[in-house]
Amino acid sequence: MLNAINRRQARCLLEHDALKKAVTSSGINVNLLTFRKVSSTNDLAKRLSNSTLEKPTLVISEEQTGGRGRYNRKWISPPFVGLWFSLVYQINSNRNIGLLPIAVGVVIAASIEENLQLFPSLKWPNDVLVNGKKVSGILCESVCAENLNKTLIIGVGVNLNQEDFTGYPENATSLYLQSGKFTDRTIFLVSTINRLLCTLNRLHQPEFLDSIRADWLSRAFRLNEEIELQLSNKSIVRGRFKGLTERGEIILEDRSNRVHFFDNGEVKNTHF
Fold first, then answer.
1. What is the model's pTM?
2. What are the sequence ranges of the domains in the chain?
3. In whole angstroms, what is the distance from residue 60 CA to residue 185 CA?
4. DSSP SS3 for 185
5. 146: pLDDT strictly greater than 60
6. Most Cβ neighbours (<10 Å): which of 1, 69, 119, 135?
7. What CATH number should be reported for the domain whose range is 226-267?
8. Strand positions, DSSP E, the chain
9. 3-class SS at 56?
């Protein structure tokens, strides 16, 4: 659990030397790149993907001017109040790769539980909610580099200490507004990256599939309820949310008890 801090402490600049010391002292072996302001940490991380990386690279910025989520939606990323980062991670197997957004969601939820004693839910495929409102989003991308290495770009945004959500989407919130506590961003980052690297190291193991699905489903938003799923082509399908496939697809059962699998789309907040 995080020690209590005040507003001034919460809004300290994320300085490279302090972050490097915290990361190294925790035994996390990554290249660390810190920036005051970038357009998008994912876009910057992609430019690193043609390099042969001896170890994972963490790109973190105090502010993003062009942060984005799925479907190129804007992710508001102001300075001093959140975490906006991308992890560059090279792999040599595609095994369980479809479960990556699911796995990262579990990582973020577990970090929130550990540090703030809140109990997030996970909305398929990549949103982290607290009390039904969004505190974190995940954007996973992959790049096949010129050197033939496949590189994962794992982008994460977490709303930690915002107090005012004027101009944000209606369902956005922060961990501060949900807990009444300011979060030390460095401690939360170190906890999350440590957990994320442990998860990625297990990604290709046979037993990973069942364990990560179980972890995700234990936090699933509206599991076993009737939901609406808006597909990428904007069409709407309805059904009872029954679970996930081995590839991370959502399973819906229609009113004729027929089962359907979908690998794209967004669960809407509509209740029937």
1. 0.93
2. 7-217, 226-267
3. 12
4. helix
5. no
6. 135
7. 2.30.30
8. 31-35, 57-61, 82-91, 121-123, 127-130, 133-144, 150-159, 226-230, 236-244, 250-253, 259-262, 266-267
9. coil
